[in-house]
Amino acid sequence: MTRQVLIIDADESFARQLVAELANVHTYSAIIAPTLDAARRVLARKYQDIAFISSSLAHEDSITMLRTLQPDLRLVLCVPTSQSRIPDAVANRVQGVLIKPLLQIDLRPVLQAALKQPVWVRGGGVKAVGPIMPKALDTAVILAILQKANLGHLVQAVIFSEGANLLAYWGTLSEEAAAITAQAAAGDGQQERGPVQIQFVNLPVFANEMLLYTRLVTENYLLTLLAVPETPLRELRLRAEKLANAMLEALLGRISVNDDARMEIDTGLLGKRRSFAIVWRPLRPLPQSLLIPMRRVFERLAAVNACVLAHTDVRADLVHLVVLCPPGRDSLWASYLFKNGSETIIQQEYGVHTSLWETGYYATETTEPLTPAELNLFLETDNLTLSL
Predict the structure, then answer these.
(1) pLDDT computed for residue 152 by the predictor
(2) d(Cα 334, Cα 312) in Å, to the nearest integer?
(3) Which terminus, N or C, of the chain has the lesser number of Cβ atoms within 10 Å?
């Protein structure tokens, strides 16, 4: 997946050297902004995974400005020498420090460390309440709220914890994995903490990196949404806010376990997007060695085309995706993108010189994967059908 990098530095020679070194580390798309005003314009129009900022431009006000535009922006401070003095107001708000003369040596470890660092977002929105007594916590009520949240496939799991201690969870995780997630969300207690934390982590139960969106409910009680990395942050924020409010009401004893009302969350953005389940077949069974690379190709195509893959199932005899498309795009666009795009990439990068897919596909507008019965019916059908 291509990461977006913003380089905020008036030293054009260093900036271009950094771009060249980034290309040796990972697939990065870099933009150079020589001034803070230029950086502001970049962030106003495009999401950035990480920003490298010169120490001459980094101060408390400039960091606040950058984080106002993108609260989860990871910052790496670029300093001219190892003896450079870094003010505490800056050091406590960046995720890494890169010494410019050591660029070639230190870039990779600095990047890896910075991308794993959690980002606590400053701001309001946390209700001040009196101390929550343990006897007021009804786990059955908490679990009922999580089960009724109806968060869909973008959110894989929801974890409620007191600090690093797991209290309740919902989703596809095991209890052990949920406990590990709660510990990752709480951190080691050394980072500056605000009401919201965003971080990317690798969990044993998932093959790929996952996004953790953690919101402080009150005091030391944390609500964490576990989602695929491409999930729009606005979607997570709106879901977490409503769910956190319900959790707070439960902690205060104001919600009954018998309350059957579902929590309908209208996020706005998803209302302008359409979600499709798309399935198609290979001309011949895909070799086992190609299944994981094919999944990676679908993830890359989704990332660079503003799509979100809510479900990916790649088998020897079938490909089954649930994809959330950008506004204005339909299933014809999505199927062409993932079928033709994946075939082209596999042919070019893996030296496959034959066609991979049968003609046609089946698609239906839904946020849910097709059932096993529907997939079996599809596999048994001689003529592939198309549904828009």
Answers:
(1) 66
(2) 14
(3) C
pLDDT tens track for 12-34: 999 999 999 998 887 788 899 99
Residue 65 region by backbone torsions, left for phi larger than 0, else alpha for psi between -120 and 50, else beta: alpha
DSSP 122: P
Virtual torsion, Cα 163, 167, 172, 178, nearest 10 deg:
40
- Residue 256: CB partners within 8 Å, gap ≥ 6? 141
Please report, for residues 33, 232, 265, 306, 334, the alpha-carbon distance to residue 269 in angstroms, rounded to integers and kept in the order given.
29, 9, 11, 13, 18
Of 227, 215, 157, 143, which Cα lies nearest the Cα of 186? 215
Report the b/e string of 363-378 with b at 16+ CB within 10 A. Answer: beeebebbeeeebeeb
Q: Is the pTM of this model over 0.70?
A: no
User: Could you give the CA distance from residue 254 to residue 316 in angstroms, rounded to a whole number?
Assistant: 51
